[in-house]
Amino acid sequence: MKKRAYISVFNKENIVDFAQELVKNNFEIISTGGTFKLLKENGIEVTEVSEITNSPEMLSGKVKSLHPKIFAGILADMTNLNEATEIKKLDIKSFDMVVVNLYPFEKVASQTDNIDELVKNIDIGGVSLLRAGAKNYKNITVICDKADYVNAINANESTRQKFALKAFALTSNYDEIIGSKLSEIFGGNEVKNFSFEKIQDLRYGENPHQEAGLYSHNTPHPNPHTLRGEGASSHHVADYEILWGKELSYNNILDITAAVNIVSEFYDVPSVAIVKHTAPCGVALGKDLLEAYTKALDCDPISAFGGIVAFSQPVTKEIAMLLNSVFLEVVIAPDFDEDALEILKGKKNLRIVKLNTTLEDYKKIQNEEIKITPFGVLIQNSDKKELDKDTFKVVTKAKPTAEQIEDAIFAWKVAKHAKSNAIVVAKDFKTLAIGQGQTNRVCAMEWALDYACDESKDAVIASDGFFPAIDNIQAAAQGRIALIIQPGGSIKDKDVIDEADKYKIAMITTSIRHFRH
């Protein structure tokens, strides 16, 4: 029994050779318009679509394939007895392959604003054919890229899935380009569409456990405000409301994201994060939220001026009274007591934000990160790597106490959100100092220890990257640090561990790096 392929392509490069291969592999070819003419001229046996539909082309060729005998044949699930029986009764034959590429709207859009010319180049039937074929990938091989001709004839289900995804991505991108161009001409549309096409896979993202790729992007004169693109969670955003103050600015949104990212690490306990310019300047846990806030503010009260404070639990009247004594840009929490709200509303320029999404659900929202550069679009998986008991190892002769290990894990989670190179000094679930943004690790270490001063005695240190030399350990020894937690993996690991042993400093390696650029 012959297989059937529907072929209709605007870009006809290599289509004759491909059609010849299909015929050799027992395919019947149905085609239309210029594609039909080209195949016929090259001696390929081909059936014109009008012979199948018993309907002539209409509206100067606008309506050719949009017919039940074509679409039922493409959409029919031949593994479903009812559907197979139904189309047989209607004398409709199923298809096995759809080969379509689209009118070059994007090219035309880059050359003209003439609305008649643009509308003329909006493909209707081609998009519908691709989507129908992709939807029925279990039965249909859908080809929208001439590069896939070579793998099309004997495609298995896994390959058909890849082809279907490519077709859906193409049609989605096609629609977005049309919408963006027409919104430029018609006006009044507030959707900004980004489409990204992979150039290459990268070895990894900011860290080895993060997958990443480099993409090209096309943004044909879009309008603001909604960003959509491959890798963006455009339909999954945190639910929040502004209870008091002005609308959030660009910087405010970046800062509250950084702050809530941190407290979401500790969503099930009273936790507070204070952030300035997206960098943490105080993080703490407490027996209650009041204690956590007091400890967090104590880390760096000067940097907290003009900062953002995020809470893991509702803000009370007592906390609000303390907040009122500091100039802050934004306070964000799951809720606010009525008395707390009244007190905070006394601050004219303060923005009070209620986070309606639970912190546990918040952690699930962002799975990928996008950065647009002149060299291409970088997309990576979000850094959600948790500590692994199989790689979490005490590597020194000195062994940490249970309390020190808990502090180390706390500091480790904070270091993940500090800017590299990051050194977090912590004790009793409180950051004492956060060295970050330094261009070498020993400077970050020395700054953090100088800032923590005498408080660093018996504290822990978390480093977002490995130690390349023993000078970091010597600095930690001067600060009388009890425990260091770091990824390990340096060629100097043995020297670093030996130096820690020399000063009786306990050390944990995790095999997990947390760079943040």
Question: What does this entry show, briefly?
Answer:
With 517 residues, this protein is of the alpha/beta class.
What is the percentage of strand-forming residues?
Answer: 15-25%
Global geometry: elongated
- State the total count of DSSP E strands: 23
Q: Describe the biggest sheet? A: 6 strands, mixed
What's the average pLDDT?
A: 90
Q: Tell me the quaternary state.
A: single chain
Strand order of the largest sheet: 10-15-14-13-11-12
Distance between the termini: 59 Å
Structure, explained:
- The protein is 36% helix and 21% strand.
- By secondary structure, it is of the alpha/beta class.
- A 6-stranded mixed sheet has the order 10-15-14-13-11-12, with helices on both faces. Strands 18-23-22-21-19-20 form a 6-stranded mixed sheet, sandwiched between helices.
- Helix 1 links the parallel strand 1 and strand 2 (27-31).
- The chain is elongated.
- The two termini are 59 Å apart.
- Residues 219-235 have low confidence and may be disordered.
